[in-house]
Design goal:
globular; alpha/beta; Rossmann fold; three-stranded mixed sheet; about 15% strand
Amino acid sequence: MSPVTTRLGPIEGTTTHGVQVFRGIPYAAPPLGELRFHAPAPAPAWSGTFDATGWGPRSLQADSPLSAGAQGELSEDCLILNIYTPAAGDGSGGPGSRPVLVWIHGGAFLMGSANEYDGSVLAAQGDVVVVTVNYRLGLFGFLDLSRFAETYAGSASNGFRDQIAALGWVRDNIADFGGDPGNVTIFGESAGGGSVNALLSAPSADGLYHRAIAHSGGTPSTPPADFTKPLADALGVEVDDLLTTLQGMPATEILALQNRTGISGSGSSVDGIVVTRPTHVAMAERGDACVPYIAGSNRDEGTLFTSMVSGDDADFSQILATVGMNLARSTMLGSDPSGYVGALRQAHLDLDDRALYERIWVDMFRRASIDNAQAATAAGPGGWLYRFDLPATAMGGNLGATHASEIAFTFNILEMPATTLSFHDGSDPVVRDLARKWSDTVLAFARTGDPNGAGLPHWPRYSTTDRRSIVLDAESRIEDATLDAEARAIWKDASV
């Protein structure tokens, strides 16, 4: 394809599945040197024709089977985005008229990249513009260094600052690619869903998006943890010298430090500078200024995480006592989780430590989804709640409706060659039917702020009045309060 003229200069992309694709566009200055651990700076203008045919770099991260085969080199210089558009500068009804969907990838704020998500099918199917965004991960994006100087205030949320900078870039430039900057939907899964919820809690992101979808996302609820002492100890330096030491280290050595210590920063937290309050509180405060919102989780979230623990003799009692309690604390919005875990044991005496650990994963994502969906409805614009129940066929069918298994349905990529995102058999007519209906639902919501009219049962807003939500399955259906009644009772009792 010929270069496209934009306000930033000419840009050359490629074509895939009938849409124009522009890869590796920098939306901020490289976060290198003095910019390490700081908020992102504006991207410099390019000269000549920008080559957007190849994959841009991914954020520095450890190897993971979940990112096997991911495109793009690992680099600290990672603040790029990819654009999928039916026709740059030629939106339906005129330039800049297409709805825009901005995808924020998951990966526990430790792994993943924008390059793993092919938005071409969704762009063509809905006549929309899809943007996928990279942001800094681990210590580079989520290490609280505020103790050292005022200029580092909010550093625990630098990864979210990156996402906000990307949304600012979209506002200023997406019309050149056929997108409407006044109709932007943010959506993401896992850490990406948590990012969506964090952005809803970030005043500096207000006005940069107009609808939001959080797939299996947690809610920021606690202040950032202070990891400066253990990091300093690991490096053999005084705490007062930690920042200078980190600034002088090669990026690969910081990644090695992260891998060696298991310390990767706070992930999603209420830092008070960027993310100022929990999501449901932000929605209540914003009232009518809140945006239409979809949230949901998968029936068997935890099976993916237990399947990744190697060995038949894995000590799930230890995992439950450490990682599990941290997850439980998130479920209880930062309060002491012991009462909740005890109540969960009593309610499910048949569950061993592995199954109990899986159940905590389910509850963490489910509670955040419920709380935020009902807050969005109470605020006025409306919140819709889903649960994804269609069992996966991967790994011998032992995962159930596991974590991340709905992503391929959201992007409707099940008919494409197998990827790490595919947990289901794309040749199954039932799978393909649900993928089409769910992706059409996402597209309808992005276009109008209402998810109805795309072939699924009529989906009412979620509220405390009747607590109706949709269950996505071979035969999708609307459920009432009984769907989550047991879990809600445990959360309520444990919160007293």
